[in-house]
């Protein structure tokens, strides 16, 4: 028998482990089961190259919880260890550099992500024992035990079967890890797709002898992301989606990632159906390293705009044991990021080209990813410019940017030669304006979703030769500023007088009045909301910052008085000044009403005044 001290520089390494790993105790299960998987995989490899002799038998891992003896055991049938190996790997190697590591990362919250490996078992144990026997011929079994002090025991034992049994004597504070439900839950979280079958057993559970209980492993050892895309059907992908998200709706489509150079990465990303932007859930992508679950916080690894996707990413090349700031600067992570973005863009373009109809049908959900991506990632923007579509206000027709430009070439270029994209944020409320624009042959597109306001601002900076104007931003004749003027039939005096009549108090509005010669069929007064101020106000309302103060400002509105409307001929002749004033006020209110700007007392006044005039 050998007795000795574990050779780490710090005497009190165990209290440190316990303290720092406090928040993430459950990861010891992942660490130990991963070791058992590694030992099993190693044996398979050695056997395949003829270094391990004989039958391997059923290769499985058993996790056994026993409340009576207060132990949790993890049993594998892998390579096992000889006495020398236990001394080398457990006593010496496992902790070299640990002191330095702890010093460096004392303050960071990342230690929970650091694979402390086998020693993490001491977070929850008073004593840990190893019973192991190597696959090598003519070796004896080995017993190792340590109670959490740096002293250990190591001696040979008789052990029949190959492999390793780790027995943890769970400590007083960690009794939760003796609850079968708790352990099962942890296994399902971390070990769900590990490549070796894992069986969970509650030693305290009574088994009736005449009953054949069918054993089912915890995990799916062969998840579809490790298979070749050519071997898989649409059904396989959808079934796997349901396995990941039992309550999720059928996804729109998916992308199978498979890279082996210059880094290793596999995975499947699903585009979920999104009906409302507020349904968006981030943190739905799970990150694995060789099928071991690592985290569902994929920030920094997946581009921000793709955080909305679901699915799994598996890469042994992502440095998991280091801090976030390091991760951001990591060249591999940057490459992975760029690769995922490219793959997603390629896939979207492929669907757009091959099946535009289905692409357009999915646009309601897809548009959100695409627009978000175009705003935040210039590489993606370049590609997406080809497949971003804009839906006509009439519904059912979609234009790409190029198609819209071509279709509006003749009518919608302004004096600077820019294409003016007319949009509506509310086809019902802005119906009159849309009809007027369409009447002139203009194309109006829908921009109704939460993201559109920001998207429009952003694209105006990024797209050359394009500007956006909301369909009610000006009277229809001025929507596309071509610097053409129609003459008014009124004399200069009459215009001035008319302008005066329209000067009245409207405290909640900031009003500008202009008299213009519009066509005789156009309404006598048109209320419009200047694009710039309205955007600022919308942005202020949506989210604070610099623009927040705009939200508190009065609504800005322009009243364009149509000097060519025949109603003014009689109004300007009206002898009863008070009556004329009221009629003028009513015309203005009607225009404001169409913009949804007539509210509260102003609305009541309008109704009373109308009755009076009648
Ligand atoms: N179940 C096992 N069967 C055989 N060897 C094992 C087993 N568990 C641990 N070992 C040996 O002990 C070594 C140290 O294990 P430990 O978990 O501390 O670190 P690691 O697995 O090498 O690295 P990591 O920090 O990523 O877990 C392993 O490399 C392996 O050689």
TrEMBL record:
Presence of the UniProt keyword Zinc in the record: no
Coiled-coil zones: none
Gene Ontology molecular functions: ATP binding; ATP hydrolysis activity; ATP-dependent protein folding chaperone; unfolded protein binding
SUPFAM superfamilies, per database record: ATPase domain of HSP90 chaperone/DNA topoisomerase II/histidine kinase, HSP90 C-terminal domain, Ribosomal protein S5 domain 2-like
Keyword Cytoplasm: yes
This protein's UniProt keywords: ATP-binding, Chaperone, Cytoplasm, Nucleotide-binding, Stress response
Binding site for ATP: 31, 35, 76, 81, 96-97, 164, 324
InterPro entries per UniProt: HATPase_C_sf, HSP90_C, Hsp90_fam, Hsp90_N, Ribosomal_Su5_D2-typ_SF
Similarity remark: Belongs to the heat shock protein 90 family.
Listed name of the protein: Chaperone protein HtpG
